[in-house]
Amino acid sequence: MSMYTTAQLLAANEQKFKFDPLFLRLFFRESYPFTTEKVYLSQIPGLVNMALYVSPIVSGEVIRSRGGSTSEFTPGYVKPKHEVNPQMTLRRLPDEDPQNLA
Description:
Elements: H1 6-14, H2 22-27, E1 39-43, E2 69-73
């Protein structure tokens, strides 16, 4: 005789593990989708000064821009973000032109 009922065992089996993307949540909070296939990256040459501690009482000082360079590249693979619908597949014979299907 079992201590658990069938319904309790099925409920325990249906609980799925939910993946928590900790690394992505901590370091990559924002995503920047592009409307084109080209990706543009901007760089500031040399060392970039970064404030370790910013006081809310002391006013900041504007640092003159040193310029920069922007490079562009086209990635080798662009992941499609559209929904895959199996109802949209076409049945055709080998070497049959999909444009001629009605």
